[in-house]
Write a structure and sequence with these properties.
Length: 267
């Protein structure tokens, strides 16, 4: 059975048409489903590399689609796209297993950035599965975050260093889905962001702009200035020397409910 590149699930035809048009321009095979039940039927008959899925739809929501994929043992990366772009939806999407979240209306660059990372994530998944029967020490695909850390989806991590202070950064797995990073834009000291907000902008060698979501919310008290001078430090040592911000958490107890312990085997 031929594997198609993308299945887009959305109850707005304008979104389906836009993704199909962009897919055609970029050489992707894109199939569309106007409702979740049709999409599930298509998943029975066809193979897909990547799913783009709206959250709020009749009959089933996007979170239920993720649950259904899990039940069917379909290990397909999911990117959520929705007009209901609340931070809660963004964070819940990642917690439930989506690899990214794009709010409507999205730009061409935002969509291509997310799709690019989605395909690379799939490649990494296949490599990880291939190493299950390989005992060689050279078979490490990515470096997981340390056990005491907490992560938001596979994207970002945080660690409570001491009472009232946390440090955060990007996971190695996320960085492996991005081409070589050529530039980084950080927020300023004393800036405030919330869990799920985009808090860093990365530019990669392929010209794409990538943003990742903050694992917790709070006020920045220090940023890693070394990254401005040497952005490669982020990829070389993402969990220690490559940290991004130190901050005072705004509501750590609330934010923790959507974080996953890095000791978990969930990627």
């Amino acid at each position: 059975m031929e594997t198609k590149d993308i299945l887009i699930i959305d109850d707005e035809e304008v979104i389906l048409d836009a993704v199909k048009k962009i897919g055609k321009m970029e050489g992707f095979t894109v199939e569309a489903a106007l409702n979740p039940l049709l999409a599930l039927d298509m998943l029975e008959k066809e193979n897909y590399k990547l799913i783009l899925c709206d959250i709020m739809m009749p009959e089933m929501d996007g979170f239920q689609i993720i649950d259904e994929l899990y039940k069917r043992k379909l290990n397909i990366p999911v990117i959520m796209i929705t007009g209901y772009s609340t931070v809660e939806n963004a964070v819940k999407s990642l917690y439930k297993g989506a690899i990214d979240f794009i709010p409507k209306p999205f730009t061409f660059d935002e969509l291509m950035s997310s799709i690019s990372r989605g395909f690379k994530y799939l490649e990494l998944q296949k490599q990880i599965e291939g190493t299950q029967y390989n005992t060689s020490r050279d078979s490490i695909i990515y470096v997981p975050c340390p056990p005491k850390y907490m992560k938001l989806g596979f994207t970002s991590w945080m660690l409570l260093e001491q009472e009232g202070i946390a440090v955060m950064g990007a996971t190695d797995l996320f960085l492996r889905t991005v081409d070589t990073i050529t530039n980084i834009e950080l927020m300023k000291k004393d800036d405030v962001f919330y869990q799920g907000n985009s808090c860093v902008k990365l530019e990669s060698a392929d010209g794409l702009i990538h943003r990742f979501m903050a694992p917790i919310g709070g006020k920045i008290i220090e940023r890693n200035e070394k990254l401005i001078e040497n952005v490669s430090l982020l990829e070389k040592d993402p969990y220690f020397e490559g940290w991004i911000y130190r901050l005072i958490p705004a509501d750590i107890e609330y934010d923790m409910k959507y974080l996953i312990p890095c000791s978990s085997d969930r990627i």
